[in-house]
Amino acid sequence: MVDYQDVHGEKVPAARAGAATLTCVTEGTPERPPMRASDADRERVAQILHNALSEGRITVAELEERLDTVYAAKTLVELEPPIADLPGVSVGKAVAHAPSQAVDTRIGGIPGSQASIAVMSGANRKGNWVVPPNHTSFAFWGGVELDLRGARFAERHSTITAIAIMGGIDIVVPDDIVVDVNGIGLMGAFESQDHAGATAGRADGEDHGFRLLGWRHSSSEAAKAATYYRGVSTPTLPAGLDDATRDDASLRRFLHGLPGVDQVGVEARAASLGTRSIKKAAKLWAIDTAISMVDLTTLEGADTRGKVRALAAKAKLPDPERPGTPRVAAVCVYPDLVATAVESLRGTGIGVASVATAFPSGRTSREIKLAEVEFAVAAGATEVDMVIDRGAFLEGRYGQVFEEIQAVKAACGDAHLKVILETGELATYDNVRRASWLALLAGGDFIKTSTGKVSPAATLPVTHVMLQAVRDWFTSTGELRGVKPAGGIRTTKDAIKYLVAVHEVAGEQWLTPELFRFGASSLLNDLLLQRRTQLDGHYSGPDYVTVD
User: Fold this and answer.
1) Contact status, residue 124 vs residue 145, Cβ threshold 8 Å
2) Burial of 445 (C-beta count, 10 Å sphere; 0-12/13-18/19+)
3) Beta-bridge mates of residue 437
4) Which residue ranges of the chain lie beneath pLDDT 50?
5) Bridge partners (DSSP) listed for residue 181
6) Which of 81, 162, 460, 463 has minimal CB crowding within 10 Å?
7) Considering the entire predicted model, what is its pTM?
């Protein structure tokens, strides 16, 4: 899927047009109606509003109000009012980092922050900001991105001091800026990429750096720094992703080079999509689709073979009085009960999923984790739901987590692998994005939110971030990977909100059990009751469905 933009009268892909070039506004004619807005257009306008907030031009309350308007906009014309009173921007003109912008027009203004700091996290400065004469960037087990392509400069000469300790700093400048780079590197890379010749009236910059077990990179080649897809920036990936996974340092560099998640934006977007309603015919389709995506689950210490057989019977025939009711996607159990589930579901086409790797904590040796996976697969599991080592991830030992996922994937053989991130323990959306990409890089067929044993479990904003990851993975690699929210999704209304998110964030092709699942136990009953309501015209009580 590629967004096309109007540049000097020519329709070109967004990557050629420039990351922050907005599609030109057309008021519409009788022959040509107003142009529809894409997610990319909405996200770019949202970024302009966030920049305005950081400059003190609008308040937080105004930002929230305007974001609601932006995310509800259907045409480009509707995107104009929220930014109409902001200086120098419009939906129909190039913003942020247009390469033709003269340097002289970018010199002057009130300097911005003199420091960018990332400690076990990410930080970035981009868009329309004023670079001070001296700026210090510091990364410790974290990543900093300074994008100067859309920036103004307080003075003609600026100095950036970059210090990376087991972290990474990426500085991107326009082609018409002269950069003088010097520094030292200890046990790692200190790199500068040449840029095209500067023009007259140029601005100059110095980049001083120190690197210890990390990396520092300066480049004027915008195309190599980042690519924008639907308004979300992701690093340009080399063929086969070999560079990102070459070693632990490269992996850290890649993950901390990912852009930070806009918390206000993603939560506002999730809330906005959650208010959408659907009509009766579409609702019945949504209910049937949700039923077909359920991983019917029992993961209790008191589970018995009899309970698993009963669950399998319900999976095969969810509503005995309505034989046209779709079957669920899979039944999910502990490894020692896989054989019972396989026997009960043989010949139905319903999958048998097994949790593994010391679910739910993941606290045991790798040897034991792999032995558990091999045991489940040998018993007939067609899907394996593993948990990552959250302690290792939060300590920044990404290589260890990566290798463990790879080892589990190898042990799965033909079985599909779902990687449980336990997002409730990851603390930030940035960590959710990094963990999602880490799992995808390591070979996970699905990324899954939660075990259901930790609160919070699945949430719409977290699922949005994960859907963005699989969407951008597909854009970069052509490979389709799935998402599974699990825990806390109990009602039909909840399920439909997630389906709307899938459609709007990832795309219609993800609306299939092969690419989207619900990890649930009680959800199926409510879906069945609401299905009866749609068909019969009146509500049926819980006595009409089996108790799990």
Assistant:
1) yes
2) buried
3) none
4) 1-29, 93-103, 187-191, 193-202, 210-238
5) 207
6) 81
7) 0.59
